[in-house]
Amino acid sequence: MADIVTPKLDGKIRIPLMEEGATSHYHTLESSPKLNEALGYPGELVENWQEKAIEKFREVLDTNKALRVFMDICVKCGSCTDKCHYFIGTHDSRNMPVARQDLMRKVYRRYFTLGGKLFPKLVGASDFTKEVLDEWYTYFHQCSQCRRCSVFCPYGIDTAEISMAARLIMSHIGLSSKYSNEIIAKVYNTGNNLGIPAPALAGTMEFLEEEVKDATGVDVRYPMDEKGADVLLIAPSADFFSAPHVDSLIGYGKVFHEAGISWTVSSYASEFANFGMFVGDFHVMRKIAQRIKDAAREFGVKRIVVGECGHAWRVGHSFWNTLVGPWDFLDQRYPVPQHICEFSLDLIQRGGLKLDKSANDARIVTFHDSCNVARASSMGGYEGGQFEVPRELIRATCNNFVEMAEDTIKEKTYCCGGGGGLLTDDLMELRIRGVLPRAEALHAVMESHGVNYLALICAICKAQFTKVLPYYNIPMEVVGGIHQLVGDAIVLGGAKHEV
Amino acid sequence: MASIEVNGKQLDVDEEGYLQNLGDWNMDVANFLAKKEGIDMTENHWEVVNFLREYYEEYKIAPMIRILTKAIGKKLGADKGNTKYLYELYPGGPAKQACKIAGLPKPTGCV
Amino acid sequence: MTRLSMVYITLYYIAFAIFLGGFLFKIWRFAKTPAPLVIVGTPGAKSGVGTALRVASDALLFRSLFRGNKWIWVGAYCFHFGLLFLIFRHLRYFVWPLPMWYSRVEQLVGITGGLMVVIGIGWLLGRRFFHARTRYISAFSDYFVLFLLLAIAGTGLLIKFSVRTDIIAVKTFMLGLARLHPQPAPADPWFLLHFSLVLVLLVYFPFSKLMHAGGVFFSPTRNQIDWTRSTERNGGTSLPSRTRSLRRSARG
Prior knowledge:
A: mainly alpha; Fumarate Reductase Iron-sulfur Protein, Chain B, domain 2; 2 domains; 7 strands; globular; B: mainly alpha; Arc Repressor Mutant, subunit A; two-stranded antiparallel sheet; 5 helices; 2 strands; about 45% helix; about 10% strand
């Protein structure tokens, strides 16, 4: 455990006084030259990096409306200054969203605006010096791209877009984070973030079949690479590796079993996560998404159902169609992709699942909206469905459901503190501090309602909370997936029907 | 590239202290790495490390946590076949800390 | 015509050209820059009408700011709507004749607007000076524009209430400018100061954060429609043709 003193929780979220530079030493590990080159970036910081960076900056400004508009229109009103979980947790003034944006804006002003070229001091413009580049690397790797600030901005300025663009520019001059690059390289090579080879994945799926058989006496299948299946399940690879992730995977299998639908995972596209988004690189994102399309076509599936993963749901829901569409070879009666929560809830509403809610009676459940689900995608095909579908699913499978404070849920949800490509051990301190507002909100309902289960639909959230909540004396056992609840409530063989 | 010195031999490790070459590993190396993590290797610690290495040799990846807990449960008794116990042995996490001591690469991703 | 008049007339047209050209250029650039990925902040509307309402609620009601910070909202709303009232009050200098009802309400609207602007700016300046986080994020340019607006409003109120200027002369001069048929400028120094400050504002506008005035309509997190899935079941919205064209534009 990292040596760090955390504040004692009392259920109240406080806006701290500013401490400039409090986290200027959180400098996530840089990627090795070998890794950078594997992704097509320069291995090391190129000699004329400043010139190259400005060149790339100009290219991004010309191809990304969001950045173009956001650089110009911030009025410094201050509405965002108290909204970031990292500011609340670290007190570092540069973690205020507008201050983070200004790290990029000051360079923009210097090289792309008249005022900045003529009177840099007066408009807060600055040369792109090595110090500024260091600040970029440090503080754009302290943004989890959760978009909470954007909700409260009068113009919807989204720091996530700015941090993605900054990381893209840095990658192109040979400076990027080890964590994300290592993962992207593994997806290219093995099809998943963890680097699980096909035989290991097959063994894991077989193991699950035995486990479920032992626990329930029913032969529930966990198939891999079965051509001709109806459904291709794309799950985050953490579901094949970690706890509590795997319990949700067990749940998905039970749902498909009861639905009577044949399904399979693919060893070629064994990853839903798409870190191309975190590094802001359209081409990386497309390459990773393409694997999934290729697998779906090869297997001849009718539909794609995806597992519990927050940022990947954004990529799937909002970007897949643009990146690698059309998906016209799939059955057009179903959305592409379909979220497992949509799939399960739909099945329940049509009477296709027999549930015994009392199986979850020992649990008092609350739900953490994952940022990319809450603020960057939707579910169920209606506005706000991303809030209702998971909650309805919880209510359908549990008797005890409690909401956390209103300003910490739905589109105002606080990040878990580990999103955006920051879920790495070398940023552990940042992660521990970043979870503070969520930990306070959770603590409040644990005290008031005895909540003992934090339901999630994101692999990053699950891993992050498991690791960092114990620093606040909240046991890791509270962390779990929604499909763990679903899986536990399902009465296998309970519903006989046609789907 | 960083390195560590065990029994007079220089061994390559990455920035986070994970051994670069699987073949460099031996029990002395494991003890050395464990000490750096603040862990005293007991017999139970070794059970975990040995299982990880065996599994890795076959599959080229660390096992899923449940496969590990089940194997440990079989060897050390059902009461120890759970994640909680593994965290007691390796507070830094059975996946990462135990892999490091076992000389395996760091598991990456949302774990 | 006096030399002074010539100078002011020339400056006016230069300033106005810079303002119009700069503003339109910026808007054109906002508009033409592609937005290949749909990054709308959700819950986002699933239809064009819903999206228009969303953007309108931000432009007219400052809805997001209201959710973010009520204190800023009060000041900002007071200031911006005061400004709107003042623009209304100045219509008589650009358009003539105006309907009867205009002259009945213009005084009231003008005075209210003037007070709202001064109070609003005072409020926002106060925040910049005394609220630690806001002070931290403020640069010289953030104060500059507030002081400039304050000076414009101040000189405006002055020539209205204190050192009353010759309204007929002002009107003749302004309408002459608007009709491209310049007339001599009034010689009142207070009016000329007020007028000069407005010219500074016009020139400053397109190069500054004041572009939020047009930019608010181009923010992709607000003005996009959440229609990206190739088929939406359950909700009954099916937009395959739309997404295809979206894709084409993204690729092209």
